[in-house]
Amino acid sequence: MAKRSGKRKRSSKTAQTKIISLVCGLLVIAAIVIFGGAELEGTGSSNPLASQITDEHAFSVHVIDIGQGDAILLSKDDTYALIDAGETMSPSDRESRTAIFAYLDSLDIDRLEFLLITHQDYDHIGSAKDVLSTYDVGTFYDNGVEHTSATYEKLMTYISEENVTYSIVREGDQIESPWTDVTIEIISPPQDLIMTGSSPDINENSIVLNITYGEVSFILAGDAGEKAEEYIISTGTSIDAEILKAGHHGSSGSSTDAFLEAVSPNVIVMSVGADNDYGHPHLETLTRFAQYTENIYRTDLDGDVIITTDGSEYSVITENEHIAENILVSGNGVSV
Fold first, then answer.
1. How many helices (H) does the chain have, and how many strands (E)?
2. Could you please report the per-residue DSSP string of 60-107?
3. Largest CA-CA distance found in the chain, in angstroms, rounded
4. Where are the extended beta strands (E) located within the chain?
């Protein structure tokens, strides 16, 4: 296991980073772990290295390795919520199809305060119906965009028949946070949606979240692309954040220079499948990321990635040993 830690950026956007990289043979989540390894400084860091976040009331964002798809667990004070419940399209990657459930069960989770799907693509909703039927889920959220896929129609039928509490959220809405000191804001899609021709664009209308605990903010971008990023910037909303879960698995159509400049992330995480058919992450995207930070993580190499914060400092733990020189290699094998 590798661990890195950081500290909230100052308003000047100069990263006040505290990074530590430590290696352990086995990932143990929310437990006492013995670390050992090399210490690395992050971009712009001049402060002493931070210690592991041990605050019992810390807030964590778990980017679960499910292959080519998204599933992000939020946790604090033994209370949980899930952003996306995707399933890999690859028939050869069957272990990833059960990864969400194995991960939640490893934490003895039986209730999720909410399940939010960012948009209707299979790699974000493929396991959503099973999550609803397996766990006690308080509220189901999505963007209200109609979709004719059999998976989405079955999901919505289940929600109706089982009387699952359902709410549509778009820009300007707030998720009712299960944690009084954590805010969860929706910054896209716009209320009137982003259209491609006469139809809403599925990826561009991804729900994008700005989650803040104390002085530390996370942007979770779903599969939002350039149009959504342009819209978010046009609203004038501050999206300066320490951690970015990059849009669309590191696709070149997301994470534009303008968006990255506005977010100014110190940590970037990509949810991406090994040897995927799309060449994710794309070389252009990795090149842009490298201009902003050295602290880049990807689930195909790092496995599960957990960012934990006490509201001031934050740390990153990876399931696998984090090998920095392997990160900036595209899905097609080209190095930055």
1. 10, 17
2. EEEE---SSS--EEEEETTEEEEE-----S-TT-HHHHTHHHHHHHHT
3. 57
4. 2-7, 59-63, 72-76, 79-83, 111-116, 136-142, 166-168, 182-188, 195-196, 199-200, 208-213, 216-220, 243-245, 267-270, 296-298, 305-309, 313-318
Distances (CA, A) of 63 to 97, 146, 231, 291: 15, 27, 25, 23
According to DSSP, the residues that pair with 269 across neighbouring strands are: 245, 297
Strands, DSSP E only, in 201-240? 208-213, 216-220
Q: What span, in angstroms and rounded, lies between the C-alpha atoms of 49 and 29?
A: 22
Report the alpha-carbon angle 221-224-227, nearest 5: 135
Q: What is the pLDDT of residues 162-188, one digit of tens each?
A: 999 999 999 999 999 999 999 999 999
CA geometry: angle 169, 263, 213, nearest 5 deg = 65
Give every CB contact of residue 184 below 8 A, 6+ residues apart in sequence: 174, 175, 177, 209, 210, 211
Residue pair 30/107 in contact by the 8 Å Cβ criterion: yes
pLDDT digits (tens, 9 = 90+) for 238-295: 999 999 999 989 999 999 999 999 999 999 999 999 988 898 999 999 999 999 999 9
Distances in Å between the Cα of 178 and the Cα atoms of 111, 164, 195, 199, 311 are 12, 18, 33, 34, 16
Domains of the chain: 51-327 (3.60.15.10)
Residue 303 to residue 317: CA distance in whole angstroms: 10
